[in-house]
Specification:
The chain is 59% helix and 9% strand. It is α+β, with helices and mostly antiparallel strands. A four-stranded antiparallel β-sheet has the order 2-3-1-4, with no helix packed on it. A hairpin with a 6-residue loop joins strand 2 and strand 3. The longest helix is centred in the first third of the chain and has 32 residues, at 10-41.
Length: 319
């Protein structure tokens, strides 16, 4: 009879270490995002979409600190997400957006005053900081978007979320209103265009779209390397458990292909699935946890059509 693993054994310790590391990674990620907002985006009124973009606009209109505004906007979204998506929505989302809100105000009000010995409110004015006063807004949008994407990529790798548009996108997918990408695009488009309306200059929208583009591409690179959607082939004797976990934990379908080992002549089951940028790291974790001897191939896919990806449509005849 197989002995049951003891609570607190090696497997439990490994899980605890992994979870602790992932929360550390989320904290590092939101700290980097906060630096991007505080150093580059907010001083130049650059909204890169999402709840953070709304916070930058509202700060200029009513003077509420960035972190407090993001927290106020995220809390109702979080409870709506819990109701619509269930408990699997998770505590990591709450931790992610709460820590992001705290970090933004902490960096602005505490570190700014301690390190530069200046009143924190001056940070919203680039001319008050010698290293920022001559910075071109175009460069500010690029480097702000870079830090925003780098931090968000680390959060995604730790299976976390900073709330905001991420919550809206998941709800849109849950109720089949749109794909996650379409929901992100629509929400960010409205936020960035609104910033131009409130600030009275279309250049704010153009620079905001540039920051959004840079951050999105940076997230792609951090989470999955160079490439877009990934196709995975997994050969394992524990194919049933792995495929079930992929479908349950990641909410992605999988196809079982029947193969045969050329050398051994034994029948083999091969899992084939297609995942997006946020899921690839988690699939690798699942496979490693279930079968460290598994054979896995990950390839870049340029176009994917069907449920959860691009809709099937009739192609026009080229001229």
């Amino acid at each position: 009879m197989k002995k049951a693993s003891r609570p607190g054994g090696p497997a439990s310790s490994a899980i605890v270490r992994r979870v602790v590391w992932e929360y550390i990674l989320i904290t590092i990620g939101v700290a980097i995002m906060s630096l991007g907002m505080v150093w580059f985006l907010d001083p130049y009124r650059i909204s890169a979409g999402g709840v953070s973009g709304i916070a930058i606009v509202l700060r200029r209109l009513i003077g509420i600190p960035l972190g407090i505004t993001m927290l106020i906007l995220n809390v109702p979204l979080f409870f709506i997400g819990i109701k619509a998506l269930g408990r699997r929505f998770g505590i990591r989302t709450f931790y992610g957006f709460s820590m992001f809100s705290v970090m933004v105000d902490l960096i602005e009000r505490v570190l700014y005053g301690m390190v530069l010995n200046r009143p924190s409110y001056l940070l919203s004015d680039p001319s008050s900081v010698d290293v920022l006063k001559d910075l071109d807004p175009l460069l500010a949008s690029i480097f702000g978007g870079l830090l925003l994407g780098l931090g968000l990529g680390l959060v995604f790798r730790a299976q976390g979320s900073t709330g905001g548009s991420d919550i809206i996108a998941q709800i849109a997918v849950r109720y089949r209103i749109s794909t996650a990408g379409q929901a992100f695009m629509a929400f960010d488009f409205v936020v960035i265009c609104s910033s131009a309306l409130f600030f009275g200059n279309v250049s704010y929208a153009l620079i905001g779209f540039l920051a959004l583009f840079v951050s999105s591409k940076t997230v792609d690179v951090v989470v999955e390397g160079i490439g877009n959607t990934k196709g995975l082939y997994i050969v394992s004797d524990r194919w049933k458990v792995i495929s079930d976990r992929i479908m349950k934990e990641i909410d992605r379908g999988a196809t079982i292909l029947h193969g045969q080992g050329a050398y051994t002549g034994k029948d083999k089951e091969v899992i084939f699935c297609v995942v997006t940028r946020r899921n690839i790291y988690r699939v690798r974790q699942i496979v490693a946890e279930e079968d460290q001897r598994a054979f896995m191939v990950i390839s870049d896919l340029h176009e994917v059509y069907g449920m959860g990806f691009k809709p099937q449509k009739e192609e026009e005849t080229p001229l």
